[in-house]
Amino acid sequence: MQRIRRAWASGMSEIQYEWRGGFANDEVHTLHADAFEHGAFDDDWQSLVSERSLGWVTARDQGGLVGFVNVVWDGLVHAWIQDEMVSSGSRHRGIGIRLIEIARDEAKSAGCEWLHVDFDDHLRPFYYDAVGFTPTNGGLINLTELS
Question: Which domains does the chain have, with CATH numbers?
Fold first, then answer.
């Protein structure tokens, strides 16, 4: 997979976006905890994304990692947005939109025909209005509730 660099000015500082950009596990742990409002996990993000993902997008400002999205896929025509996160101090600057745009463009370049996402209800305006997803039928089984 190729690495690309894209720069985009946002607000007072420039945000650097990179497809399959480098990152340290502790950076993603900190960002994930902030974005999803929980304690930090100890996952090996580098192994997870390099083994199972089509790619990912990093967003950095002068202070470090402020955004990340993982793009998982079936190896054929379907890709999924997973774990999109923007730091709480960097929200409402268009970073989330740009992360999705790059993920969308790279999935298409890889030959994917469909990009899927699931999200909490309060994120409907972002995913439907801001980045162009359309409602579809879907289903979910909560495996933690099975005995």
Answer: 4-145 (3.40.630.30)
